[in-house]
Specification:
Elements: E1 5-8, E2 28-31, E3 38-40, E4 45-55, E5 60-65, H1 68-74, E6 76-78, E7 83-85, E8 92-99, E9 105-107, E10 112-120
Antiparallel strand pairs: 1-4, 2-10, 3-9, 4-8, 5-7, 5-10, 6-8
Length: 157
């Protein structure tokens, strides 16, 4: 269990704090802290404030992720998923939503628009080398392992 300090901003004062909706939930639901409803046309994107600022402990990040129900039912998702809240960021947490659906979608005050997963972060020490170890995959890029069955399954690159 990690402690995250949370500051409720004035335009989110009446909204419930983020919460885990079930005992096994990985993410805390984030809500829209908007005054008037925002209509998101198909293909449109918008920045939705949450009315919250937070202080994450060093060595942790907040991952802003889509809600699966919004994605499935409406085609609405987090555009830069997962968005990252760094431990040294103190501004308002906002969510970039995009409507990939075929119908307009309206965001209203208090809607659960995304989820926040608190996760540990490792910092890497980079070490430049002349050559990397060989592997079976090698330098095969996007799609190089195929769709089913392994490397280049079905003759597809």
């Amino acid at each position: 269990m990690v402690t995250v300090l949370l500051q409720r901003l004035s335009h989110g004062a009446d909204l419930p704090l983020p919460a885990y909706e079930t005992a096994g939930a990985a993410g805390l639901d984030l809500r829209a802290a908007i005054g008037e409803p925002v209509m998101l046309a198909p293909g449109a994107r918008t920045l939705v404030p949450t009315g919250l600022a937070m202080q994450l402990p060093a060595g942790f990040e907040g991952q802003v992720r889509p809600r699966s129900g919004l994605a499935l039912r409406h085609g609405v998702t987090v555009l830069n998923a997962p968005g990252t809240v760094d431990s040294d960021y103190r501004g308002e947490v906002s969510v970039v939503l995009i409507n990939h659906g075929s119908e307009p979608f309206t965001v209203t005050r208090g809607d659960r628009i995304a989820q926040l997963v608190i996760a540990p972060v490792s910092h890497a020490r980079l070490s430049e080398v002349e050559m990397l170890d060989e592997t079976a995959r090698g330098a095969g890029g996007y799609g190089s392992t195929g769709v089913s069955g392994g490397a280049n399954a079905g003759g597809r690159p």
